[in-house]
Q: What sequence folds into this?
């Protein structure tokens, strides 16, 4: 089956779909994005992802290219045309096409919008969660506004590639104070020796992951004790459990940090319980 991409109002064959060479996303990474899980053909947590999209756009002063209801239609139609049951839908909005110049273009310049969707094999994710993943730590080198979900992801790309080269799956950024901020494309969590769930507050230094927000709700229903506070690499290495969250990873256990086993080196019960209860709490579309 041939894939379809939505580009600025048209559903095009994915293989040949493109934007103009002077798109500001291409030239300046001047844009934002969202990734939603698709499950059983339906979007997971669309409402929250759209709220975050609007926030990201506002922060960098790009206008929403179409009403959210219309955007929802495009997202669903892209999922449908690609026949995705389980996978993800990707949405990117940039400041549009204009002669290369750092200043914002004429306000009448329409933002560019691209939507793609693709299937993921749920069995692969489950196998990864059953096994657990390794992470490495790398110095934080991103700008301060990581709360904005911008398409400027070069530090994340380099960090994740370094992880791959080291035989790991994810890289955790470590700030100047020695605290883990987040992963290249996931939020970071630990479970302390006394069973408390710890994740960094989202006020600074991280993207406020939608999965993170939902997991905090799941944790509450499971009556887990949660501390939103910074934690260090040393604390993470000494933790009982560690795990990452994101829209496509749900909760995935971390079993090694810089080669050092976490707990007994196997996925633990807290990450498992959060993962199992996640979709019961997330908002799944119809
Ligand atoms: N942090 C970063 C840097 C990310 O790229 C992502 C995934 N987009 C996350 C955290 C997790 O966010 P979410 O749970 O909304 O997928």
A:
């Amino acid at each position: 089956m041939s894939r379809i991409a939505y580009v600025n109002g048209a559903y095009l064959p994915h293989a040949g779909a493109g934007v103009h060479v002077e798109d500001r996303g291409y030239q300046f990474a001047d844009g934002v994005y969202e990734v939603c899980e698709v499950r059983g053909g339906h979007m997971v947590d669309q409402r929250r992802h759209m709220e975050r999209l609007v926030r990201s756009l506002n922060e960098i002063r790009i206008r929403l290219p179409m009403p959210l209801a219309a955007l929802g239609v495009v997202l669903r139609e892209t999922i449908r045309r690609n026949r995705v049951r389980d996978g993800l839908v990707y949405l990117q909005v940039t400041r549009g096409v204009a002669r290369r110049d750092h200043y914002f273009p004429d306000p009448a310049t329409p933002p560019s919008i691209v939507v793609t969707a693709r299937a993921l094999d749920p069995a692969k994710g489950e196998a990864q969660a059953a096994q657990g993943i390794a992470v490495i730590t790398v110095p934080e080198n991103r700008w301060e506004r990581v709360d904005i979900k911008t398409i400027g992801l070069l530090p994340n790309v380099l960090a994740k590639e370094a992880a791959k080269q080291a035989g790991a799956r994810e890289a955790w950024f470590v700030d100047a104070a020695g605290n883990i901020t987040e992963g290249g494309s996931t939020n970071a969590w630990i479970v302390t020796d006394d069973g408390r769930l710890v994740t960094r507050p989202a006020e600074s230094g991280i993207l406020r992951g939608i999965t993170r927000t939902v997991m905090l709700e799941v944790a509450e229903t499971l009556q887990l004790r949660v501390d939103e506070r910074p934690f260090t690499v040393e604390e993470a290495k000494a933790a009982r459990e560690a795990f990452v969250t994101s829209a496509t990873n749900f909760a995935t256990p971390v079993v090694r940090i810089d080669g050092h086993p976490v707990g007994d080196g196997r996925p633990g019960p807290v990450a498992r319980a959060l993962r199992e209860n996640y979709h019961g709490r997330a908002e799944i579309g119809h």
